[in-house]
Amino acid sequence: MQDSKCVILGVTGSIAAHRAIDLASTLTKAGADVRVVMTADAQKFVNPLPFKVLSRNEVITDLYDDVDDWQPAHIKLADEARLFLVAPATANFIAKMAVGLANDALSCIALALNPQARVLVAPAMNGKMWLHPATQQNVATLQQRGVEFIGPEAGALACGYEGVGRLYDVNKIAARALELLALPAKSV
Predict the structure, then answer these.
(1) DSSP state of 62
(2) Which residues of 53-66 are buried (b: 16+ CB within 10 A; e: fewer)?
(3) In which element (H, E) is residue 134 found?
(4) At what angle do helices 133-144 and 91-99 cross, to 10 degrees?
(5) Residue 48 gets which letter from DSSP?
(6) What is the pLDDT of residues 145-184, one digit of tens each?
(7) Which of 160, 137, 164, 135 is nearest to 152 (CA)?
(8) What is the sign, positive or negative, of the torsion defined by CA atoms of 142, 98, 187, 119?
(9) Under 8 Å between Cβ of 129 and 135
(10) Domain edges within the chain
(11) Does residue 6 carry a catalytic annotation?
(12) Which of 1, 40, 134, 159 is labelled catalytic?
């Protein structure tokens, strides 16, 4: 585990999902072993193929995807992860993480994640959703558990509004992810 550079890149159903393709590419070029896990909603915005090509790994799109050995893919990835990065992270996924709901591959990995892994979440959503007290409470809950958030940024949103909710700059997300990978494993 100490030398692992396994990054689980969770992609959720946000209009910013296409930006995660560049994130996967940047992290892979930097030497990370990027394992992309897409929610069903993410697949409505972007196809798994670019993630597979750029990460050089199969993309997990379903809790019941086949694996090459006896261990379920979500458990194997949860064990191997050095960094669990969700970018973009929707309000829905943040809520699922906060309450421990595990009804798809990505949320199961989050719940089964090895305790040494770092967690970095890059939110992207409508500004009213981001500022809603429920979302803010979920963020606070996750931060108390050691989850680090990066962003969101303010600016023009895809929904036509101005405000906070834009996915943080992908290069800055990648830089922070690589910093977290360089740190020694968390002690438990």
Answers:
(1) S
(2) ebbebbbbbebeee
(3) helix 133-144
(4) 50
(5) S
(6) 999 999 998 887 777 778 788 899 999 999 999 999 987 7
(7) 164
(8) negative
(9) yes
(10) 6-182
(11) no
(12) 159
Task: Locate 80 and state its tokens.
Answer: 């191997």
Question: Phi, psi (5° rounding) for residue 121?
Answer: -120, 130
Tell me the two tokens of residue 116: 């040494």
Q: Tokens for 17, please give them.
A: 């999902």
Element at 37 (helix H, strand E): strand 33-38
Q: Write the CB contacts of 17 (distance below 8 Å, at least 6 apart in sequence).
A: 11, 42, 45, 46, 88
- Report, as an integer, the average pLDDT of 3-9: 86
What type of residue sits at position 69?
D
Q: How far apart are CA 188 and CA 186, in angstroms?
A: 6
- CATH number of this structure's domain 6-182: 3.40.50.1950
pLDDT in tens, 107-130: 999 999 999 999 999 999 998 999
Mean pLDDT of 44-73: 87
What's this model's pTM, rounded to 2 decimal places? 0.93
Query: Which secondary structure element, helix H or strand E, spans residue 40, and what is its range?
Result: none
β-pairing verdict for 162-166 and 153-156: antiparallel
